[in-house]
Amino acid sequence: MKKYQGISYKNVHITDGFWKNRQTINAEVTSHAVYNRFADSHRFEALDCSWKEGMNYTPHIFWDSDVAKWIEGAAYIIAKNHDTQLEQLCENAIDMIVENQTKEGYFNSYFLVMRQSERFKHRGYHELYCAGHLIEAACAYYEATGKDKFLRAMCKYADYIYDTFYVYQTASFTTCGHPEIELALVKLYDTVGDEKYLQLSKFFLDKHGNNTKDTYTNKYHAQDQLPLTEQHTAEGHCVRAMYLYSAMADIARHYDSDAYLEACRAIYDDAVNKKMYITGGIGSTKMGEAFATDYFLPNDVAYTETCAAISLTMFCKRMQLLSADSRFADTVERVIYNGFLSGVSLDGKSFFYENPLEIDPYFANVNTASEQKRHMPIMQRVELFSCSCCPPNVLRFIASIEELMYTYDEHTLFVHQFMNSEAAIQQSVIRQTTDYPADGSLKITVEGTDFAQIAVRIPGWCTGFTADKPYTLENGYAYFAAEGEINLNFDMKVQLYEANAAVQNNAGCVAVARGPVVYCLEEADNGKHLRSLGISSQAAFSLEENDGYKVPVLLTQGLRKKEQEGLYRVYSRECEQVTLRFIPYFAFANRGVSEMLVWTRVMD
User: Which of 105, 173, 184, 250 would give a disulfide with 135, using CB separation of 3.0 to 4.6 Å?
Assistant: First the structure.
């Protein structure tokens, strides 16, 4: 099995441009905004395990995971910025966790005060999920600071889980209802080198769909319908699924498992080719926060959870370590510039849980005679959710986004994502200079002789490119001799995309994209009734610079159906010409409640 190495975020420094701007906001604003809301809602206080009946808050089953993701994100920032304030806030939380950990190693701020005698008796209560995030946070904090108190505590917890689930099998279930522990154990193994953590991860994977203890009403929801090596479709709760598939890819790599690798490839193909929105969002239905039937991709009620987009990139990142195939990096790119980034406001303070592709506030409440309303995504980002998994996930993802950029083997360095940056890889230094995604120019400078060749991804959206050096093309990568300077230019013309005919919601419509960025119409620029607007299939676009977005706004001439009197009329082709203004999808809903539309009618 071919394998590649990844590069730690610590060895890559983003120096300028689009992602430098987002990382600065993430470090200076998002980290504190999320911390403050978690402090206000008692998530940190709960770690003290001093709750008593009658207090002004009640611990929740997944609060530990929220705090853990915040610590992990803060750790990535601390590693780069040496933020002593963030470090002290982390230390305060870590102290409470360590002080309240039981002598066996167990820690869960909900069960320790609410259900002390019910450890590992409720599969759906997120114990192992919380444990997994605590483990990931401990690894990240150790790697960032060199302090090992948290890591030692979580190794003790992992040892307890190993004994409970693997050695003595005394828990009331075998696999966690919400996967996460599986990939966390691999990370713990990679950090400390104890093979029993890797063994336990594989044990959990092997037992999915293959044991008698685990019972859920819907087996697909929990990935129990078949052994994982026999699964070939993306099913069930999207975040749970992609976290589990990420661990499958990890185990495929560590154990040279062709069975797990082939299952991962089949699942990827199914998810991306039949169940993914053009924005990279996955999970089209709120019911189960899940994958739905093939090609069921409604726009106005698209669930497309921010965490689901993140989890898709986590899976693809691992698949990059198993294959030199640009499809995985193409998917990552689609997600990070669209369906993930829309999950956080431009100022970094507020968040979307759901990321729809269409908003019409005038039809959000259509049943005025009933208190029972259909579910619709919210139309403005908020600072805190009752289930607030997405904000700290955004924090940790942006703070470590460098890890998506490169992989390598003994001969070749693969360049997957394009960001102004400098990377130290073994004895080589690689610099990228680019205004991507605002334009398609890219300069790569290589110093050192570790690699014989550099393989640069040619984006799947790119219909043409130029390079100043000879190259060969293979599986979406241009291979160059690894010496000196390489200059490429990707043709970044505006393109119109149509959906498969099976995606009925998008019939007769196109989505507008330039490079990796998908665009949308908003009422704030184009007036009400966006569905009355149309675009020519031969539309010509001009660019308008916008420093707030860091990518251009697109302008083109379009048509608007004329207003009519009465409810119906004889069909008329009568339209008026208007200027349409498309903004990047990731920036919608930053100017108040407004209609928004990704898929625009074609009017020729």
Answer: 184
- What pLDDT digit, counting tens, does each position of 86-133 carry? 999 999 999 999 999 999 999 999 999 999 999 999 999 999 999 999
Q: Write down the mean pLDDT value for the chain.
A: 96
Which domains, and CATH codes, for the chain? 41-215 (1.50.10.20), 218-363+386-404 (no CATH), 408-490 (2.60.420), 494-602 (no CATH)
Going across the sheet that includes 428-434, the strands are 12-14, 421-425, 428-434, 441-447, 484-490, 465-467
Give the pLDDT confidence of 11-44 residue by residue, as tens digits: 999 999 999 999 999 999 999 999 999 999 999 9
> Please, which residues have CB within 8 angstroms of residue 475's CB and are 6 or more apart in sequence?
324, 325, 326
Integer Cα distance of 475 and 524 in angstroms: 42
Question: Which two three-digit tokens encode residue 44?
Answer: 């940190």
300 vs 290: CA distance, rounded Å? 16
* Rg of the Cα atoms in the chain: 24
Maximum CA extent, the chain: 78
Sign of torsion over alpha carbons 215, 220, 221, 226: positive
The answer for residues whose C-beta is within 8 angstroms of residue 54's C-beta and 6 or more apart is none
Tokens 């990796």 belong to residue: 516
Number of H helices, E strands in the chain: 15, 22
